[in-house]
Amino acid sequence: MLYKQYITSEYQWGIWKVTENLSELLALLPDQGAVYMDELNAFKSDSRKIEWLAVRVLLYTLTQRITPIQYHPSGKPYFADHSAHLSISHTKGYVSVIISETNEVGIDIEKISERVHKVAHKFVRDDEHLPEDSVQKTHALLLIWSAKEVMFKCMNEEAVDFREHMHVDLTQLDGTCFPGKETRSKHGRTYLICYIIDPEFVMTWTSVES
User: Rounded to two decimals, what is the model's pTM?
Assistant: First the structure.
């Protein structure tokens, strides 16, 4: 089911809470999703089929049209007809997409879990200050990871080190956005990272002039 949707003049995003089985998802598409059957049958796992199909159902719900998706060698998705910029993310029980006809976009959704603490040393810099409270610290770690995923999705760069080449400033959280910067590209770029913290997940996104 459509869990959340947000529309601006520059972009729109949506979150789908995956409660349906495969047949129920197919029923939400024109012609029972016939256009997707060959691609869908390439997956062996039902859970992977459901996740993949939920993205297409969400896109159809947002746009009311079926547009094939292709992938760059890097794995970055794009519409085959180049009608808009696209970013996709998924986590346990949810998928999210963001679309813009004018701007480069990135989105990332992460299930709230304390497991992020175990890998924090791989992506958190010494100057990215974290709160002491355990719950707030988990949220902060997920925001940092998610924000860096979003920036990476907007960059056209190889060999990006999330700890060395990206910086996020959570001291400037204002309830809606915070700044992030990458130093991997020739001139570097600053991003405004927007976010929501749901009881079950953290999601971040950004939109930049392409």
Answer: 0.95
